[in-house]
């Protein structure tokens, strides 16, 4: 039996021709972790076979439930008496997902470290085989890293140092995962993270991961980042640098301090850190600056209003639908 007939036929052909052409036939091996002696169905991904339970697959996956309802035709190949289901997914994806289905869901608890490849497997197979809880849980976990609200974005920044010690993934890799599984709603935060930490040169040419390998972005993401960066740079919020409307409330001359703040702003703006409070030098400089108390409060409120405005309009900068539209989309 097969989910992808052509795949299974190809494997059957390979088995038939095995004696004639050993050199071109992949060696089929049994998964060490996912092979249950009381399993009653064998799933084959690439050259790896998993012996599992029909009842588990039917319970977890709407696609398998429908398929396993259909009686197996006579003469189909079996392994240890179990029918064989061939799929075109990677063995790694199925290994990751079977570990979760059999051993639990701790890998994607919002408070714990996570593995991006495991989340990607959950999203890929969860979507393809209708394993809804895998999809929902993995997306929820990713959304902790790539928020859709400014409050959560700020919180992610608060937690950044703590997280950095346990797991670090390249900003480009998050974008690649979102493209792979078709999630648009988390792209604005992923794009913003790319802009904050990488130059345009890296966006187009690739950027180095911690292990020395190079991360690249899809062409569509490169274009979105170039366009978004350009639009955001044209929106530098500098109105808070003006003299306060009611200058009588300012006891000193804050002109020089405002000029110093402008210099800082110009320096950090190319990386658009103004949206991120913890990474925003301007924000800190504001409170260390010699502005009077009155002007500091005005500047603080205006910077906060600018951040909120930019965040609310963020998807549009990258030619994405509005937050409202993006949040409606389950995928
Ligand atoms: Zn002042």
UniProtKB/TrEMBL annotation:
Domain BTB span(s) in chain numbering: 39-104
InterPro entries reported in the protein's UniProt record: BTB/POZ_dom (IPR000210), SKP1/BTB/POZ_sf (IPR011333)
Positions of region (Disordered): 1-23
Name recorded for this polypeptide: BTB domain-containing protein
Pfam families reported for this sequence: BTB
Organism: Gymnopilus dilepis
């Amino acid at each position: 039996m097969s989910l992808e007939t052509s795949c299974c036929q190809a494997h059957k052909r390979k088995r038939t021709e095995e004696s004639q052409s050993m050199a071109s036939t992949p060696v089929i091996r049994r998964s060490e972790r996912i092979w249950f002696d009381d399993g009653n169905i064998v799933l084959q991904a690439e050259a790896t076979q998993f012996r599992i339970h029909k009842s588990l697959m039917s319970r977890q996956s709407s696609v398998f439930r429908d398929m396993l309802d259909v009686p197996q035709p006579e003469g189909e190949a079996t392994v240890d008496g179990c029918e064989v289901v061939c799929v075109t997914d990677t063995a790694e994806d199925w290994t990751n997902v079977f570990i979760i289905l059999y051993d639990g869901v701790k890998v994607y608890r919002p408070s714990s470290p996570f593995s991006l490849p495991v989340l990607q497997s959950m999203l890929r197979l969860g979507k393809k085989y209708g394993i809804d809880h895998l999809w929902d849980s993995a997306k929820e976990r990713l959304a902790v890293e790539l928020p859709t609200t400014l409050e959560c974005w700020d919180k992610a920044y608060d937690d950044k140092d703590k997280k950095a010690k346990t797991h670090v993934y390249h900003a480009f890799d998050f974008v690649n995962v979102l493209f792979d599984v078709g999630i648009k709603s988390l792209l604005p935060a992923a794009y913003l993270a790319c802009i904050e930490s990488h130059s345009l040169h890296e966006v187009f040419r690739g950027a180095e991961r911690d292990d020395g390998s190079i991360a690249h972005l899809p062409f569509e993401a490169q274009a979105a980042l170039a366009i978004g960066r350009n639009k955001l740079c044209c929106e530098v919020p500098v109105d808070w640098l003006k003299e306060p409307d009611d200058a009588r409330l300012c006891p000193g001359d804050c002109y020089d301090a405002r000029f110093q703040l402008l210099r800082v702003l110009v320096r950090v703006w190319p990386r658009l850190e103004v949206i991120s409070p913890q990474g925003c030098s301007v924000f800190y400089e504001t409170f260390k600056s010699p502005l009077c108390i009155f002007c500091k409060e005005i500047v603080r409120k205006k910077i906060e209003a600018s951040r909120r405005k930019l965040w609310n309009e963020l998807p549009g900068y990258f030619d994405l639908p509005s937050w409202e539209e993006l949040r409606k989309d389950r995928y």
